[in-house]
Amino acid sequence: MTIRLAALLLMSLTTIAPSIRAQRSVYIEDLTWPEVQQAIQSGKTSAIIYIGSTEQGGPHMAIGKHNFIARYLAGAIAIKLGDALVYPTLPFAVTGDPIKKTAHMRFPGSVTLTPQTYRAVVHDVALSAADAGFRNIFIMGDHGDGQDVLGAVAKELDAQWRPRGVRVFYVPDVYFKEKQQAHAYEASHGITTHDVHAGTDDTSELMALDAQHHWIRSDKLAPSSGAQTAVTGVDGDPTKATPALGNVFLQYKIDDAVAQIRQQLASR
């Protein structure tokens, strides 16, 4: 092979490599509209809409925690299902009252939507997925508040679109069942603190994804509860968090979501 031919081949590979990577991505934000259309036509007829949240996670954890975790999980779930694409993570949820300074809105950087706005946004994203041609739409969330809204949106849209062959499902196991499993696992390993927010389980999950150490402030890890929670934003004990625990909990979420989705598809 001549030097000139080798150079031309290298240039060709460099040019097409981004396109190859894009076609393999399950995230529609990485794709062009013809690639999304082609993916649906070739069998990727399920859409995952995973909601995160922009909220305080104590002095030790980045505000984007839910969004980082949600995006990772959505991709992992889509890959395991084999026939799904992922819509961009919705980064906002219901996190408190900004006027009365309740819940997470007591802390700078948190963002909240009213339940009405939240419902409308989730509804319109799911509606967009139905309009795009996806036949199964799965809505789930990494944030506790507003889970009832996700269920209501799925029920409403499913009733509207079911006659047209489109199903819309809410996937609660990825949140509620996993919480039970995580707490049971912690208890079986001698971790008996009751984690509500930014404690062992939340911190462990982000640690597992934070290989570059961008999102966890190790020197700020400290347990908090009761009156302290109002000051720190932490309700639990993040000092017991480890990446290994996080990997266990993240896998619970993936497996729970996939199992429930497959059950929902079987009942379709």
Give an overview in words.
The chain is of the alpha/beta class and 268 residues long. It has a single domain (24-267), classed as 3-Layer(aba) Sandwich (Rossmann fold). Helices cover 50% and strands 7% of the residues. Strand 3 (136-141), helix 5 and strand 4 form a beta-alpha-beta unit. Helix 3 packs across helix 7 (200-209) and helix 7 (200-209) crosses helix 9.
CATH architecture annotation name: 3-Layer(aba) Sandwich
Biggest sheet statistics: 4 strands, parallel
- What is the name of the CATH topology? Rossmann fold
How many domains, as an integer? 1
Give the distance, in angstroms, between the N- and C-terminal Cα atoms: 56 Å
What is the strand and helix layout of this fold?
Elements: H1 3-24, H2 33-41, E1 46-51, H3 65-81, E2 84-86, H4 115-132, E3 136-141, H5 147-161, E4 167-170, H6 176-188, H7 200-209, H8 229-232, H9 243-267
Parallel strand pairs: 1-2, 1-3, 3-4
Q: How would you describe this structure in keywords?
A:
single chain, 268 residues, alpha/beta, Rossmann fold
What's the short story on this structure?
The chain has 268 residues and is an alpha/beta fold.
